[in-house]
Write a structure and sequence with these properties.
20 strands, seven-stranded mixed β-sheet, five-stranded mixed β-sheet, 462 residues, alpha/beta, disordered N terminus, single chain, 14 helices
Length: 462
């Protein structure tokens, strides 16, 4: 089962409830939401120290509710979900909210990203951290003599959630301040509670595995249709990356729906949404929702943008003994630079122009990397292809050493060199055959790829 990180609904809902007296009062009824101990050393209302409030949104592939009760067979049939499923986190998304600003930048991490897992788990797909840790903790508790099944279930779930938070922090360099999690049933109920959301497809599509069966063009979806929309990957040009984009488009539309006057002015719909969140969403125990509303008062739908971390290779053959096994190859250095840039890096000196020269066989690489750097505030210099070389290099005049070092860091930690051959006011970037930094791929988070999704954008997708 491949599902969307639906928990963003809880964040968006909390942000907009404060827009009406009814919503603000009703928010207090969310005290019944399941709370878990996921964030290390967190205190209710504590302000983040890194310049951004960071929320990890997790979509679990689980066939039970947040209290461990199995979902009814009729619900599983409607959701086209089998009775058994791996305990995986099939969607991971981080919301970055810079202190003192209303713009929200969300980024997705592909579920098959091949990373270093926490503890002694070695390397594996990022979505396996939850289930592997949960299983190991349950075994440890039984070996220690614990026989209470409820305690084993609860404590092993907490261990899985904490491992998921840890692996995301390790990969992105982002200190997670809050955690929200949902499963299949919560997505089904929340999408119906808001009266459906508007999406658009470039062409008709049908997929038996996900249950997707949609015409081309604009349409309103909810419930099991919405789940099918965000689950589909078969038949999509970029498979998992396009599925992530589907998820982002749906969330953007959901934000637009929740933030619309039609929802805010409808007490019945708000009540349904609160009840859906209350009985299906799991939050960390340090999250003060009323305080969050105060912080986010005034957010608008257009202030939310969804993107995907940069990827190196979506068809990474990571296991020589199993040549058909694939994962998504990512570069942690590249992802850390990407995540940091979302809340604003130090502005570059405007007069510094960057010439980007492609010495690799990758078509269009110079233009994509140039676009990355102009997005960071540098002036655009020339782009060109040059004779092949293996390694990358950033060259600059002595007076631009600081700018050259910054550019090298932005591109994943390239070698630097002071050179009298580089024109005054310019920094030169030579991209070698082994370059794996920002812009290397037209996948998520890379210049030249699809633009970020926002609620006010033209979001018709594959």
């Amino acid at each position: 089962m491949r599902i969307l990180g639906k928990a963003v609904v809880a964040c968006v809902a909390c942000a907009v409830f404060g827009a009406t007296a009814y919503g603000y009062t009703a928010l207090s009824s969310l005290d019944g939401v399941e709370r878990v101990d996921v964030i290390d050393g967190a205190k209710p209302g504590e302000q983040p120290a890194d310049g951004s409030l960071d929320i990890l949104l997790v979509g679990r592939d689980a066939r039970d509710d947040q209290f461990g009760n199995p979902l009814p067979a009729e619900v599983l049939r409607e959701l086209r979900a089998g009775a058994n499923g791996d305990d995986l986190t099939d969607t991971l998304m981080v919301l970055r909210i810079p202190n003192g600003k209303k713009d929200v930048r969300a980024f997705s991490i592909p579920r098959d990203s091949y990373v270093q897992l926490p503890g002694d788990l070695g390397k594996g797909k990022i979505n396996s951290a939850f289930g592997l840790t949960k299983l190991a903790e349950a075994g440890r508790l039984r070996k220690a003599g614990v026989t209470d099944k409820a305690k084993i279930y609860k404590d092993s779930l907490t261990a899985g959630r904490r491992a998921t938070r840890q692996v995301v922090e390790d990969l992105t360099g982002v200190k997670i301040d809050h955690y929200a999690e949902v499963n299949l049933l919560s997505f089904y109920e929340i999408s119906k509670a808001v009266g459906g959301v508007d999406v658009c497809l470039k062409k008709a599509t049908k997929d038996e595995n996900s249950g997707a069966d949609f015409p081309a063009g604009p349409q309103t979806i909810s419930g099991s249709e919405a789940l099918a929309f965000v689950r589909q990957r078969d038949g999509l040009p970029r498979t998992d990356l396009d599925r992530v984009r589907r998820q982002q488009v749906f969330l953007a539309a959901l934000a637009r729906s929740v933030l619309s006057q039609g929802t805010l002015a409808n007490p019945g719909r708000l009540s349904d949404l609160i009840e859906a969140v209350k009985k299906s969403v799991v939050l960390d125990e340090s999250w003060d929702l009323l305080d969050f509303v105060r912080q986010m008062n005034g957010i608008s739908g257009g202030g939310i943008q969804f993107d995907t971390v940069p990827v190196v290779n979506v068809d990474y053959r990571y296991n020589p003994s199993k040549p058909t096994a694939t994962a998504v190859q990512v570069d942690p250095v590249q992802i850390k630079a990407f995540a940091a840039g979302l809340i604003g890096a130090a502005p570059a000196t405007p007069q510094v122009a960057v010439d980007v020269l492609n010495a690799s066989p990758k078509d269009g690489l110079a233009a994509r990397v140039s676009s990355v750097l102009t997005g960071k505030g540098f002036a655009q210099g020339r782009t060109d292809n040059v004779p092949a070389r293996r390694t990358s290099l950033v060259r600059f005049p002595a007076d631009l050493a600081a700018a050259g070092a910054d550019i090298a860091k932005q591109l994943g930690g390239l070698t630097t060199q002071v050179s009298g051959d580089v024109p005054a006011g310019h920094v030169e970037v030579l991209l070698g055959q082994v370059y794996n930094g920002p812009g290397v791929s037209d996948g998520g988070g890379a210049a030249g790829g699809p633009p970020p999704i926002s609620p006010d954008g033209d979001n018709c997708v594959d």
